[in-house]
Amino acid sequence: MTPVAAHRIHARYRPTAIAFMFFAELAWALVVATPVHAWARRVWGAHPDGDAVLWIPGGRDLLVWLGQNDAALGVVTRTTLVLLVVGALLMQVPFGALVASLAFGREDALEPPDAGAQTGAAEPDASPPARLRSLRIVRALKIGVASFLPLSALLALGSAVSILVLAVGALAAAGIESAVTDSLGDARAFTVKLVVLALFGVLAAAFGIVVDLARAAVVREQGFAAIERTSTPAWGTMLRGIRAALVTSRRGFGSALLAWTGRVVVGVALLAIGYVASDTFGGRGGTALTLLFIVHQGVVLGRVALRASWMARALSLVAPVQDALEEARSAQRGADVATSER
Amino acid sequence: MQVRALAMSVGLVALLGTAQAREIPGGKGPAASDVPMAEHAARVVDYTLRATLDPALHTVHGEGSIAWTNVSSQPVTQLWMHLYLNAFKNQSSVFMRAPIGGFRGSTLPKEWGTIDVRKLTWNDGATQHDLWAKVQLRRGTDEDETDAAIPLPRAVAPGETIALDVVWDDKLPSIVERTGFDGSFHMIAQWFPKLAKIEQDGTFAHFPFQHLGEFYADYGKYDVTLDVPEAFIVGATGVVTESRVEAGRRIERHVQDDIHDFAWTAWDEFQTRKETIDGVACTILYPPGYEGHAERELATMRFALPHYGARYGKYPYPLLTLVHPPASAPEAGGMEYPTLITTGGGSYIVNGVNLIELVTIHEFGHQYFYGLIASHETQWPFMDEGLNSFAEAEAMAAWKGPSNFIDLLGVSVGDSEGHAERARHFAHDDRVAQPAYAFGTGTSYGALVYSRTATILETLRRVYGEEAMQKTMGAYARRFRFQHPVPRDLVETFQREMGNEAGEVLRDALFDKGWIDFKVEAISSHAVRVAAGIFDRDGKRATTPPDRGSSGKYEGWVLVNRRGTLHLPVEVELISEDGARTRVPWDGSTDSIRIPYAGTSALRAAVVDPDQRVLLDEDPENDFATAAGHSGGGAPRTLERSTYWAELVLGAIAP
Ligand SMILES: [Zn+2]
Known about the structure:
The complex is a heterodimer.
Chain A: E1 2-3, H1 15-44, H2 60-67, H3 72-90, H4 92-103, E2 104-109, H5 115-118, E3 132-133, H6 137-184, H7 186-227, H8 234-281, H9 286-341
Antiparallel strand pairs in A: 1-2, 2-3
Helix pairs in contact in A: 1-3, 1-4, 1-9, 4-6, 4-7, 4-9, 6-7, 6-8, 7-8, 7-9, 8-9
Chain B: H1 3-8, H2 10-21, E1 45-54, E2 59-69, E3 76-82, H3 94-97, E4 114-124, E5 127-130, E6 147-156, E7 161-171, E8 180-182, E9 185-188, E10 194-195, E11 197-198, E12 204-205, E13 220-229, E14 233-236, E15 239-246, E16 249-259, E17 264-267, E18 271-277, E19 280-286, H4 291-312, E20 319-323, E21 335-337, E22 340-342, H5 355-365, H6 367-372, H7 385-400, E23 406-408, E24 411-413, H8 415-424, H9 442-464, H10 466-479, H11 487-498, H12 500-511, E25 516-529, E26 533-537, E27 540-544, E28 550-564, E29 570-576, E30 581-586, E31 592-599, E32 603-608, E33 624-626, H13 636-653
Parallel strand pairs in B: 1-13, 19-20, 20-22
Antiparallel strand pairs in B: 1-2, 2-7, 3-6, 3-10, 4-5, 4-7, 8-9, 9-17, 11-12, 13-16, 14-17, 15-16, 18-19, 21-22, 23-24, 25-28, 26-27, 28-31, 29-30, 29-32, 32-33
The structure holds zinc ion.
The site of zinc ion has 4 residues of chain B, from helix 7.
C-alpha cells in the first residue's frame, strides 16, 4: 500500500469504492425506512391496491393514516430519527474506506508512469508517478474502522458548529428583519432576512469545507499509520487533521470553495431530476415504481460519486500540506531525540 | 321574511309562486339558474354617516343619521344597538372573558378599544327625543357594553320609519381580532353604533360581541363619507361616488344599496392593483413588495367571480375590494364584509401550496354565504362558515383539480380531504348546528362548523352527483338571496331538490351528530366442486367420485357493515384473483349486507366505497379486506420513498 500522488487522486479511478459506499448507504437507508414501511404495511398493506391509495390525488387516506390519533406516528418518527443518527455514525466507516481508497493504492501500478517520465523529460523530479491499483476492500475498510473515532469526532464537532452558526444566523436574521421592517416594509425586510440567513449559510458551508479537508487529512494519516503498522490516538489525529485543514484553507481556500460549489450545483441538479421523477411517476406501482426506484438510486449514486470527487479534490489539496507538516514534526522529533541523547 | 320585503320585490313574489309549484323530489326540475332571485333586499335600515380618522391617535369621530323601519308585525318600544368596539374595552367584556383558545383573537390588545356614543336623538316630527339619556348599556352586574338597550318614548308602529341622529367617537384597539390598527395600518370594522336586526315577531336578534361567532344585521343603504389624511389610501364597502382632496384631507363618499354592514381600511403604504373581472371592478390593496400575492389574488378572482356567479347566482355589486393586510397584522386578514374582503398570507408562500388562493376564495365566497344569504351567523354559524367552506373546497377542486391544496414533493392534498380529516376527530363531540357560543373550544368550533359541514355537503355531492348538488345549492343560494334563511330552509331545499334521503342525511348529520362508517367485515370464497355420488340423469345412472374435477368456478361472499346513524348509498368493489373487478351498488338502508360472489377465480379482496365518495366515513382504514391466504398490495411506494429520503438525509448529515 502506498499513497497516491496528490495530482493523481481522482474519484473516477475508484468506481468500486464509490459503489461500495453507495450500497452501504442504500442498505442502511432500508433499515431507516423499516419503521415507516412496516407501519404503512400494517395499516394499508392488506388493501388490494396497497399503499397506492396513500399517494393518489386528494390524499384522503394519507391524511387519515397520519392523522389517526394513535401512538404509531410518534413511535415511528422517533425510531426513524434514532436510526438516522446511528446511521450517520455507522456511515463513517464506509466513508473512511472510500477516502482511503482515493488516497492510497497498491504498489503495483495499473498504468505505466505518465508520458513525461517515459520520454525522459528534462526534470526527472517532476515526472508524475503511475496510476495505482485500488486497495482491496478489506484493507480500505480497516483504515475506515481505524478512522471511525476521529471522523465521528469531526462529525460531532462539525454538526455542532454548523448548528451554532445557523442558530446565530437565524437570531441575527430575525433581529435585523424586525429592525428594518418599519423602514423597508415587511416584504423587503423578509428579503433582507433571507440575505442574512444566506450569509450565515455560506459561513456554515465554508466551515463544512474545512471539516471535509480535516476528514481527508485524518483518513490519510490513518493510512500512513497502517503502512507503518503503528496506531495513533483519535484525539491527536483529529487535531492534526484540523491543523492541516486550516493551513490548507489559508493557502488555497478559493480553489477548495470553487471545487465544492461546482459539485454542489451538480448535486442540486440531480435532486431536481429526482423531484421531477417523483412528480411524473406519482403513486403508480409496477414498472413505473421500478423506474422511479432506478432513477432515484441513480440520483443517490450520482451524489455519492460527487462526494467522492470532492473528497478526492480535498485530498489532493490537503496532501502536500499534511506531508510538509509531518516532515516538520518528524524533524522536530528527531531534533528532540538528538537533544535528549546528548 | 319581512312583509315589506315581499311588497317591494316583484321578483320575490314570483319566486314564492315558483317554489310552491315545484314539488318534484330529487326530480329533474329546472336547473338552478332558472330559480328566480330577488334583485334587491328589503330596505330596513339606512345609514348616512361621516367618519373622520386620526391615524396618529387611532380614533374615528363619527356622526350621521339612521333611518329605521319597523318591518315586524308588532309595535316596537325599545331598540337594541350593537357597540362592538367595546368588546376591546376591558377584560370584563363577553369577548375578553370567554375561556376560548384554538381559534382567532386569543391575545390581549396592547391598546384597548372603545366606542362612546355622544348623542342619539329621534327626530319625531317636531319633537326631538334624547334617546341616549335612557340607554341601558349593561345588564345587571355584567360589565359588557357591546349590546345596548334603548327604550323609546313611544311605540313605533309596524311599517313606520323613524329618523335618528347619532354622534360617536371610536378609539380603535391594536388588532386582536379583525378590527383595529397596527402602526399606520387601520382596519376599521364593527365601528359604528349599529341597530340589531329586527325579526318578524318584533323581537331583536341582539347579542354581545362573542369570541366565536360573527354577525347578523338588516339590509339597507349605506352612504358613508370617509375623511382621512391625504397620504392615506382608502378601501371601503360600496361604490365611490365622490372623491376629493381638501386642505390636506382625502374625502371619499361610498354609497351602496342592499348590504348589511360597512367596513373600511386606511393605510399610507397601500399599493393598488385594479382589474375588471366579469363586469366587477376589483381592487387589490396590498403592502409594498406583495406584488406576487396581489397577482395570485387577482388570478383567484378571475376564476371565482364567474364560477360563483354560475353556481350561486350573479354577484350583484359593481365592485369588490380585496385587502391584503401587512404581515404584522395577520388578525386583520381572512374576514368578509359586504363588497370588501381581507385576505392574508406571510411574506413567503411556497408554490405548490395554494393557501393564498384558498383564503381568497373562502373570503370571496362569503359575499354569498354571509353577504347575500345573510343567515344569523352567531346562532347558526354553519350556515355561513360551513356552507362557505363547502363552496370553497368545491371551487378549489373545480379550478385546480384534486391536488388543489397541496401539490408538492409527490404529496397531493385536496381541500375537501383536508376538511374531512379535520372534522373526523370531532364527529361525536358536539352538534354542528348550534350557536357559536355553545362550542367548547375554538378547535371543535372550527372542525365542526367549517370542516364537518363542508364534509357533509361534499359527501352529498359525491354520492348524489355533481348535477344534483349544483341544482340544490344553486336553488338555495338564489331563493334565499337577501332573505336571512334559517336551517329549516336549507334542509327543505335539499329534500325538495336532492330528495328526501339526502335531506334526511343532511338534517341528521347537522342536528343529531349523525355519523357513518362502512366496514368490510369479512370475505370468503371457495371453488365450486362437482357434486359427488350416484346420479340418475337422462335415464342413465352415473357415479361421480369425490374430489375429481373442479368446475373452474368459484363462489363466496363479502360482508359489509354500515356502522353509525346515516344511510348513504355506496358501491362495493369485488376483486378476483385473476384481477377482474366488479362493482356492486348497495343502498345502505340496512345495517349490513352479504354480497354474493361468483367468478372464475377465487375472491381476493373487497373494497367498500372505492371512489371515496363518502368523505364522512369515519374510519377509511377498515374500508377493505383481503381474503385469508391472499396478499394485499403491500406498501412498496412507501418503502421506495422513505428509502430515497433516508439516503438523501444520510448523505447530507454524514458527509
Ligand atoms: Zn369564513
